[in-house]
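the two lines:
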Amino acid sequence: MKLQFDDATLAFRDEFLAWLEKNRPAAEEMETDPAVSSAHAPDWARRWARRMFDAGWLVPGWAPELGGRNAGAVETLVYLEALTEAGVPRTTNPQGLGIISPSILDYGRPDQVEEFAMPVLRGELTACLGMSEPDAGSDLANLKTAAVRDGDEWVLNGQKVWTSGAAYADFCFLFCRTDPDARKHRGISIILVPMDTPGLEVKPLKEIVHPDTPDLAEVFLDDVRVPIENLVGEENDGWRMANGSLAHERSMVWLDSVLAIERSMAGLLDHAKAWMPALTPAERALAADDVVRLYIETKALRALGYRGFARFVKGGNAPEQALMKAYSSETSRDLARIASEWNGTDALHTTSGRSNRRRAIGGIEGYFNTFGSTISAGSSEIQRNIIAERVLGLPRE
Amino acid sequence: MDLELSDEQAELRDNFRSVLEDCCSPALVRAAYEESDDGDSLWRQQVELGWPSLAVPETAGGLGYGFVETALLAEELGRAAAPATLLATTSQLTPALVEADDDEALARVATGSLRGTLALSEKGRFDLDSVATTARRQGERWTVTGTKDGVLAGATADLFAVAARDPETGFVGLFAIEQTDAKVERRPGLDPALLLADVVFTSSPARLLIAPDADAEARIARITEPATVALALHMVGACRNIFEQTLAYAKIRKQYDRVIGSFQALKHRFADMYLEVERATALCYFAAVSIAEDDPERGEVAHLAKAAAGDCQRLLAEDGLQLHGGLGFTWEQDLHFWLKRAKAGEVLCGTSAWHRTALARRLGLASEGDA
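prediction for all of em together
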């Protein structure tokens, strides 16, 4: 156990910080032209992705031809921390960079890598993930969108829902059923579907906050035809790949949540010092304890994340990682709730839907926004089942 | 930050665990409960293993390990619900003697001929502001008068490190007082293996460890911090044992023709218990390494650790007992040793609320004048 990184890691961090200083997007351009969706890449974001790719800073752990520099896990961790501290987003299309490109690199053919994965990495295309359906949320394997072969094409029919970024993405990494007779986990495949394919319609879903800039959407597929070669990996092997693609960067995703919560916590501490003097001593003691409890959670999240990460680096199992999704999303929610409850009538204010303002502390709308994390990518309830069954070995119901 | 044990630390922890499973079985803990056994035979075995010398500097004849290793021992002693003599000697007396550079006493600790503990709290308060015990100086000699309560392993201590106030200056210092110069009133109470005692000093001859001056508060913090973190990890060790016992029970206990661990209502509670234990462990290890490396934030992290251990004991004692059903409610089932150890830890070395209040002050959330 030790508190500090070694000298080599710190030197790596300094090298990145020096590069970042010279090459980062300017705060003004990010503010003037913010990304309004998880698959929206404003011009500055496209240029930024390309610069990082060319310099080997996009995915440091990968080879130079893929936008990396063969860095180790610890180096990747300090790189992610440095980016966050600098207030620079790594990407405005996180599912494209974090899940879809790596999956195509793992399971796709070379021509799919060239046509789909590399352009996403270079900031030329953005992608969305077509998983959930009206009857397939937590029970993803219940999905019904069908792909049927017709000559050298797939014909797709069905409906996706909660598809983040669908209104802005160039293509969809779409999960569909290719064998209706197989047991439900067995008949699933993954097909790459350009979003401008005839028969594909995107209907944005207005959200309870920021209805003007919805990120979620329904995607309707009505006899959508794509070439047979758009199948990723083997036919009917989608479930196995889904577990692989969702596991991508599993060793690191916790860090984004922790860094975001730490930023919110710092904001709350600042904010609290502004509104606390107006309280009575009795109220102030209650408020202080609320804030202290959140402070403890924030520190605990980092300690837990680092502990799991250290095990991961040493090649061991990291059961803490299974805890991080539920714990971090619920802490984020609690922090937003408490910040809003002590914020007086200011808590009722709303902000425009511009993504860079969504993180403002103290609003009830921000609290509602945090439910995106406790519901999506395996709800907190599903995470608890996973912990109980896969980590603790309790039998399935 | 690396909060995973090194291979050597993991090996040491495994060694503590396997030895304690052998020489500190639940039967031995039961003897402390039912036959007023102070664990003297266990102490002798621990001395043979060299455990009291673990944190004693090599210059004083000890093994010279850092605080992480002391904390790991405290965790395993909690896992065993062991009689508390070794916990108090390694995590309370030893840091006091180290801070005071008392090599002579440390050498006696290393050989197992001196057992002892910290006597700080009065009327249940673990802060120096509440110290009413007085230390009076006559020439080069000090005498101490006052009453300390909830003294961990006070029943077996040969030496007390006593916090007392010099009425002349108003500063609190730390003083070494022999058991033979004190009146020790045993308080077996809820968990007899904690060997708790109230200790009364009446003009007791005292040896100066830390002079009552402007630096004393900071120096005493360097003793209370490791004491607090060791106790926190000790509680977490007890909680982890409760967790493992409860999980094992849920995998074999059948109702309605299925093991109860297959019910989702219980699964979610196990996931939450697991989180509490892992969360508290991570913060305690963070605190242990902060103390071992003498990080400037060590004081804050010690508060975090004890507050988290408090959250942990609350959930684990409650759900551990509840999910054992009537079985956990019986004296014959061993579970209550750990339930009681975990709960008792909450009120020693400062409650969770006390540590959270201290954090609020450190974070600038309490205004001047707020109590």
